[in-house]
Amino acid sequence: MSSAKFARRYAAIGAVVLLSVLVPPAASAVGSGEATHGIAAEEVAPGVSYQKVEKSTSNGSVVAHLLTVDLSNPDTGLDLLYPDAVAAANEVSDMADAQHAVAGINADFFNLSENHAGVEATKSSVGPAIAGGEDLKAAVPDGQRFGPGMADGTSTRDVFGVSEDGTARLGSLALDGVASSAKGEFDLEGFNQYAIAEGGIGAYTSDWGEVSRARSTCGTDTDREAPCSSETEEVVIKDGVVAGESDEPGSGAIPADTVVLIGREGGDDELEQLEAGDQVTVRHQLTQGGGAAFRFAVGGAPILRDGAPLSDVDNSTLAPRTSAGVSADGKTVYLTAVDGRSSDSVGMSLRELADLLREFGADDAVNLDGGGSTTLVARESGADNVTVRNAPSDGAERAVANGIGVFSAR
Question: Which sign, positive or negative, has the C-alpha torsion 64, 298, 260, 134?
């Protein structure tokens, strides 16, 4: 997406007036010896509130930060925060200010570092992403995921998002794509991803950015750290015609009129059939099993469904956490950052996080990237820019792949 297009998408989001209290201080039990107390709630914008929450648990004190978003308010909405490229990273506060969001949190896990010699980390996220109704990327194979283990029945295709009808929900997005030519039809196994499935072909567009595409052929479907494939092919298609090819993935910006196809193992054999001048049509879209189409979606690991924590989510590892939850009617969203790794806040396990989101009012929730990535921002009264409200465990914000932005037309 061009910078101009990116700016136009968010230019209509105006400044915000901070008001008073939306969520009153509360105290309620969620387990033996546990109590939660809300402190200093404030309204960030009509339908948007921020509240600091202190909690005593059997493991120690916890400080959490809650953004409550009322999607029934016509002036309030959510969309993806990202640095105008899939393979890039930026701080949540910078992305929020650039896109005129009034608040936000970090979102999906991402390719932060790389163990393959000579291969550049892409900073690209794990799961699917949709921004403003536009498909940006699909999910990497489960075995290529960064982040804690997933619960049974979940996958990298799981997302949190907002549908075209204005309600938030959890869902799953799969890639439906094909490259067609006189030489045959080749199914796509990747779309702007840092990892393509074994034997597959991935498509890369201008939304990818300038980062090298070499990482896409490293690892396997079950082992992220497996060696990079030696059987690769890259084909450049400009205005629907093959304009070039290479035995190795390239780098650099991809023009808007160009699609780059990369194949590994069997996928490279298919792409090697194409020659300069061949006409190729590339089609790709993210598809779902049912329900209204998403106009915004971001990858997340489900931890709470139908008001109950998933039975096999971790209940022992304490860490800073980020989560997004939604009420049963899809109209109220709970964006939560839990501080950790400090004397003030010990962090939470995923099970504790699910319980906390349920206490706030969520019926479904996903775990997002935590640890040093956990960041929650919101505008203060009279301010034009957001302020970091939580205590990042690294002592400062980390550049991340994307976030969930809260927008207000007021």
Answer: negative
Domain span at 32: 3-109+147-172+291-408
Q: Write down which residue in 259, 287, 315 finishes a domain.
A: 287
DSSP state of 397: P
Q: Is the domain of 317 the same as that of 262?
A: no
Do 313 and 401 reside in the same domain of the chain?
yes
- What's the distance, CA 169 to chain centroid? 14
For 61, other C-beta atoms within 10 Å of its C-beta total 14
Residue 92 phi/psi, 5° resolution?
A: -60, -45
Q: How many CB atoms lie within 10 A of CB 85?
A: 23
CA distance 172 to 199: 23
Q: How many structural domains are present in the chain?
A: 2
Whole-angstrom distance, CA of residue 370 vs CA of residue 285: 29
Paired with 203 in beta bridges are 191, 261
Question: How confident is the model over 217-259, as pLDDT tens digits?
Answer: 999 999 999 999 999 999 999 999 999 999 999 999 999 999 9
CA distance 95 to 362: 26
141 domain-assigned: no
pLDDT for 1-20, tens place per residue?
A: 444 444 434 443 333 322 22
**pLDDT mean across residues, the chain:** 91
SS3 state at 46? coil
Same domain, 11 and 157: yes
Looking at the structure, do residues 154 and 195 belong to the same domain, yes or no? no
Kindly tell me if the per-residue pLDDT of 35 is higher than 70: no
Tell me: do 258 and 329 sit in the same domain.
no
Q: Are residues 381 and 259 in the same domain?
A: no
Please state, in angstroms and rounded to a whole number, the distance separating the CA atoms of residues 329 and 343: 37
Comparing CA positions, the residue from 236, 272, 233, 230 lying closest to residue 249 is 233
pTM over 0.90: yes
Residue 197 within any structural domain of the chain: yes
Burial call 308-343: b when 16+ CB within 10 Å, e when fewer: ebbeebbeeebbbbbbbbbbeebebbbbbbbbbbee
Is the CB of residue 9 less than 8 Å from the CB of residue 132? yes
